[in-house]
């Protein structure tokens, strides 16, 4: 069973919808048989103005993005590429089904928030260095910018998703229960 | 209240209900290929859980990069090969017998109406053509599937698409599904099952139904499902004849999976295809669809005919009709990968291979090939491909490349002309 993860740190804002799994980790890296090998290639082919993976990802621990994040392939290499970079939490309007399930299966969080809430986060925080902390007991995020702006938001997580997060993923849970 | 096909399959396979709206189902099939499975195998080994729930229900193939292109892909193949042997997985398809998973496994008769199927591959939805609930999953779900024979899913809501009308000449199943995706959008069916029905689907062969279901994921769908019918029974008959007294008995049995007349849907869409023209994608999302007429004369550098969407014998026949007596344009390289050895053999028997070679098409062995730029047929920066595959994501077939998705006939026409054009112009 993998360790229970934490969900906090610097935020990477990705201002685009339909970011697909090929953009998160290109197919040519699927020949790797360890998660760690995927690390340097995260978001390498992301098509987004003024995004440079070499500098923009560094030190980030949370992604906030728009809608349909993770569409396309079933490759769990996409969450793994995030995980080995220390990113365990993605906040978006919605996710592709397989990607979302893969996140929770790995004990990571893919949290959906309304379009209005996401819009507000982008307009208030995306132009500054921003950090986020998670209170798993209260189901709340607190987001803070370097200039001192702060906002606390509640989020929903279903009972089963929460179980997977608490167990560090699906393998440990399934082995015990089925 | 009546039930949809997906709801009936969920009812019949339910093992647990570990959260609101979440069901753990037992699995009839766990399919495996060499890209997403080795890492699951390694993890199971490292956890001291090197077991499989049922070696007869697990079917495995090496298809994405075959023959191996480098040491890493050779290692992936070796892990699969050793595991299949160690676990007694008899249906393991290695080089010489291997083909694209979603073409090969149906050909072997591995899927039945009412089955639950998972695979670490998003296009597993193809198998819904047989009236099965078949879904792509990640490696962790695959790992649990291999170990325990179960997988968790949300309760299935279905979108019913009733396809009516008649197809014009030069318009194919691929044009139908691309047009449906354009209508739904790339996340229009997220977390939903798309039930394809109506007279056009009923008139489609199993191959054409697989082409349609294959791309359900491109609208975000968990699965595409076609109601099992006489065509399903005919296709499967050689594999099921010992189970039933005759075909009508098989049909009667399989009909129990059909959606009830009063089943409830998230949405019902009527789609009349009578005025549909040949289409292709533009841009980098599969819902960006225009008519071939609108894209006419868009130059292409490569043509690729193959994949789990359109590498079947019917696809090759349509491509051959266009390529017969023609030459691939000097400005284009054309690559064709029959999806399985049986398809290759059949194409050879029918003289299609000779037509392709005379036209100057490069033939490869059965493999996923150029579709996802992992092995052969990779595009250079700025190059354009007319392709019968299922994804046009940026960089998919090679960094900086652009892919236009279309039918095999349209791709063949692009090979001859060097640009996107209507296949009718080249049909003798």
What can you tell me about this protein's structure?
The complex is a heterodimer of chains A (178) and B (428). By secondary structure, chain A is of the alpha/beta class. Chain A contains 7 helices and 7 strands; from the N terminus they run βααβαβαβαβββαα. Chain A has a 7-stranded mixed β-sheet with strand order 4-3-2-1-5-6-7. Chain B is of the alpha/beta class. Chain B has helices spanning 5-13, 37-46, 71-86, 101-107, 139-148, 173-184, 199-203, 206-214, 230-240, 247-254, 292-295, 307-310, 313-323, 341-349, 352-359, 408-417; strands spanning 14-19, 22-26, 29-33, 58-61, 92-93, 116-119, 133-136, 150-154, 157-164, 192-197, 223-225, 267-272, 279-281, 289-291, 302-305, 333-336, 362-363, 384-387, 402-405. In chain B, the strands form 5 sheets. Chain B has a 5-stranded parallel β-sheet with strand order 5-4-3-6-7. A 5-stranded parallel β-sheet of chain B has the order 17-16-15-18-19, covered by helices on one side. Chain B has a 4-stranded parallel β-sheet with strand order 11-10-9-12, sandwiched between helices. Chain B is globular, with a radius of gyration of 21 Å. The interface between A and B is large, with 46 and 61 residues.
